Amino acid sequence: MEAITFVLFGATGDLAKRKIYPALYNLFIDQKLPESFSVFGLGRRELSDPDFQANVEKSLRMFSRRKVIDQENLQKFIEVFRYRVLDVGHKEDYKTLLQEIEQQEQKLGTKSNRMFYLSVGPQFFGTIAANIQESGLGKTSGWKRLVIEKPFGHDLQSARELNESLSIAFKEEEIFRIDHYLGKPMVQKLEVLQNNNPVFKALWDNRYIANIQITSNETVGVEERAGYYDQAGAVRDMFQNHMLQLLMMLTTHSPNNTTNDDVREKKKIVMNSLEQLHKEDVKSSVIRGQYGAGVIDGNPVVGYTSEPNIPEDSSNDTFIAAKLKIDDYFWRGVPFYIRTGKRMKEKSTRIVIEFKEPLKKSGGTQDENKKPNLLVFEISPDERISLHLNTRDPQNKEKIKPMYIDFHETQANLPEAYENLIGDALNGDSTFFAHWEEVELSWQWVEPILEAYNENLVPLHIYAAGTNGPSASDELLAQDGYHWWFDQ
Ligand code: BG6
Fold first, then answer.
1. Which of 90, 154, 242, 408 is catalytic?
2. Residue 67: pLDDT band by 50, 70, 90 thresholds?
3. Which ipTM did the prediction report?
4. Which residues line the pocket of ligand 1, CB cutoff 6 A?
5. Measured between alpha carbons, how far is 422 from 424 in angstroms, rounded to an integer?
6. Which of 22, 223, 290, 401 could form an SS bridge with 393, CB 3.0 to 4.6 Å?
7. Has this prediction a pTM greater than 0.90?
8. How many CB atoms lie within 10 A of CB 31?
9. Which residues line the annotated binding site for substrate?
10. Annotated binding-site positions for NADP(+)
11. What secondary structure, in 3-state letters, does 293-344 show?
């Protein structure tokens, strides 16, 4: 790999400590970083290089998936980290930074390839992009790339403005929008599993699939993020990005020998085929919830509106369940139920594919033990694929017995989402990043939900913390004759 300068805005922030430094370290150990790799960490407060390096080391010790940190490797890894004070609105700071980066690149005698990682609030994206452009930091003899974190806008309009401001300095193919769900190992496998296994590929449509359920539940509440979360809610925080990306990754039908562009093109097709809601009928397919007081893991917890810094009368959503329809050749008639919530019974992200029961009609065995076939992708906390089948009960030959085929991978051996994503960005592979058109189409799809919430056209259901959400979410499926699988 060619030499790379990694320029990190927000180097003293939480994300850098928890995710970015451990990811870089594990990439280094796995020999996935270039020989010549240097990091310029940027932040507002003063910090010497040795103190910065000590902070990076601390973050590895706390958050790296590799718990054993070997001193020799650590030294080699950490010596390329430098820290510079930079005020994002201060143009001079960018010029000084450019001089230092150029000196470093000249020393190495290589082409200049620069990756700018914005681990800062989105309100700074536009200013930073403009200053990168103006200062000359964006002029490289090799490539330049921009990595940004969510949230990408607050609604369709603000997302468009944000995109506009980035495009002053970066072309679409240079922008890597992180959606960390796309970095989860199981999510990265979905397309390959579907396209390389005839047993799946042959069944991947409305002839065999009855419905699909995508769940991402958490037990945590709003934590210390009241300011952000009370403006965002579950719909913006999880649904518009992670949940719709999961839907896209699962439902694309790709040719063999897929390229990045194919995957992105197919995702766009899915989003374009999604039946658009109108704000008047949002309430019949979307359930809005907010957690009340309850019990999590045996401990009492307060309701959302009693959380610190949340207004007592907040009607913000901490749960959403929605029924979606994809109106295309493959998926017409298959309901997709998607839900995500905070303060739920368990932490779990999973996809359940429920198959139809054609044998019922053609005289297959009738038995109360018989269940529909299920294909389950557990995405986190554990990674697991299981297939639920029906077999004969050896104890009672008249009876049917469920049988499970189960594949389980322990998370400890797997690279983390951020390792996958940063590694891909360093290699210029944008398959698992959100393309602007996907982001725009996702905002477009949720826009009527935002309007309906805003105008209070959808009831707000309060659910007890530590449960599976409001009962209205169960009714959403019950009216189609289904239920959420695996709710305990
Ligand atoms: C983030 C949301 O994007 O995803 C958080 O902002 C949420 O509110 C988190 O907790 C969930 O991620 P994961 O990987 O723990 O499922």
1. 242
2. confident
3. 0.99
4. 216, 218, 237, 349, 380
5. 5
6. 401
7. yes
8. 9
9. 180, 184, 218, 237, 342, 347
10. 10-17, 44, 87-88, 150
11. EEEECCEEECCHHHCCCCCCCCCCCCEEEEEEEECCCCCCCCEEEEEEECCE
